Amino acid sequence: MSGKGAPAFSLSNDAAIYSPEQNKELIFTKDTLVAGVHFFENDDPFLVAQKSLRVNLSDLASMGAQPLGYLLSLSLPKKNFDIEKWLAAFSAGLKQDQERYNWKLWGGDTVSTSGPVTISVTAIGQTDKGVNISRSGAKVGDDIYVSGTLGDAAGGLVVLQDDLDRTLYDELINRYYLPEPRLKLGRALTEIITSMMDVSDGLMGDISHICENSGVGAILNLEKIPSSQVFGNLLATNKAYSRLAWSGGDDYELLFTAPKNKNAVIKNLSDELGIKLTKIGEITKALQIKLLDDDGSEITQTKKGFRHF
Amino acid sequence: MSGKGAPAFSLSNDAAIYSPEQNKELIFTKDTLVAGVHFFENDDPFLVAQKSLRVNLSDLASMGAQPLGYLLSLSLPKKNFDIEKWLAAFSAGLKQDQERYNWKLWGGDTVSTSGPVTISVTAIGQTDKGVNISRSGAKVGDDIYVSGTLGDAAGGLVVLQDDLDRTLYDELINRYYLPEPRLKLGRALTEIITSMMDVSDGLMGDISHICENSGVGAILNLEKIPSSQVFGNLLATNKAYSRLAWSGGDDYELLFTAPKNKNAVIKNLSDELGIKLTKIGEITKALQIKLLDDDGSEITQTKKGFRHF
After folding, report:
1. CB pairs below 8 Å between A and B: how many?
2. Residue of A nearest to B135 (CA)
3. pTM of the shown model
4. Rounded to a whole number, what is the distance in angstroms from the first to the last CA of chain A?
5. ipTM (interface predicted TM)
6. What topology does CATH give the domain A143-299?
């Protein structure tokens, strides 16, 4: 590698060598985070490091993959930026999550930029050969499920942006900063699902990906979308925030489809892992994504977002 | 992946799946290029694309690896930037080199930035299991070799920066923009060398890496460093440019060490591939890197570069 690195950081510029195990498939994903776009410029680098890893781990989770290693590219400003201090906190954040998820830094590079901090992670994971991981397998009549609760991360972002009382919404802010990649769940689901992805762009956008790739449509029920108590509290202050549950991103829950006869298996898995798995709708033949309001009226996607009919 | 992408570009946000072949090792490297640091803001995106791939291919070459695929992360400015036009040229450049090197785009992401264009490539290649690739195997008494000619790329950069007559130095400018990754040579050398890397930071910096990792020193002979006819022409205009041959980067030639008894094998390989392979020095026990001038006097590395004694 070209090695134009910040010497304070221990990123080795050597190439990484990996001997694949037999009967495994390797999964590669890549997610880049830019200061001012994907996180705030003054966010704690410790948390930024962990978010950078976790959004990529979530990609692996959505492929039912076990994390193996990652490569990291850092573009860091030269001016008005305390590189040593930033890297100390960032590295500590990486280290903690590497241990938490048993994930290894395989290499990477550090370069300087006239722009904002840019963090590019390439994630490498593995699955057993032949495991079913797809965004294109949803079938008409399949149930649509989501793990955990939706809207929390987007709610946390709103709390930060609208300068609400943070002490009331700690839980939401934490979910915004530190998503929990559903690795165990993702692996377990590979034997059950017909399609799966993680909710990173918002429920409606992500179910659209599955439907487009599968050549199907979907009906979702707003009242079934699972939300947390704290998100309910936020909603009570302003009903307009309800859109966050279906259009807000960054929850990194798993969205998946499964045949109806898998209902009991999914219930068992939910109990076993202690993770809420909620049926929120159904795959349809009609090539539309419909979101039904509590009273049965349709909330419809437009180019500029969603509107009520 | 989070899919905050430029829709005009066909970068799939899906994860890539790869089934490794038996008895192979996978090689991962990552190199990031930032506009204003690693290339000029107004450089032709077609050439920038190819340079981005080739510096990574050169990393694979230095590991004796065969290219398999790559992941690409693009951070692109939103303001004062014609994203469609830029991407059209950039994609065309990628496409041509993908075919040339039989290398596949496995995936990646595109995000927006308030900063300069930032291109991060993760390169994946493979070698046979157990192949000897190392920066740490140089032994006292080994010969030090370099492929091709050195100084050309740095010479090309000088021509651009000092606004010299470009028509006289086309060849140098081309080498600056379009390095030739020594893939075939790298693979062939794995059976011969004790250590190898590519010359990306400049000969002296790169031989230092090998020596540090191997716990040895080196003596290099300035007069033996191979240079091109056109570089000689540049040198004739200003003797100060001679430093480019040993301190200039971006040539992406292979630098390697080999036992003396491999001399004939290396000569044969050079003839077979039609690539000049030149012995430029020797590995020493003394932990210093010495560069000897034509008259035998020593040019010594200082913190700020190199100076004559």
Report:
1. 193
2. A14
3. 0.89
4. 56
5. 0.87
6. Phosphoribosyl-aminoimidazole Synthetase; Chain A, domain 2 (3.90.650)
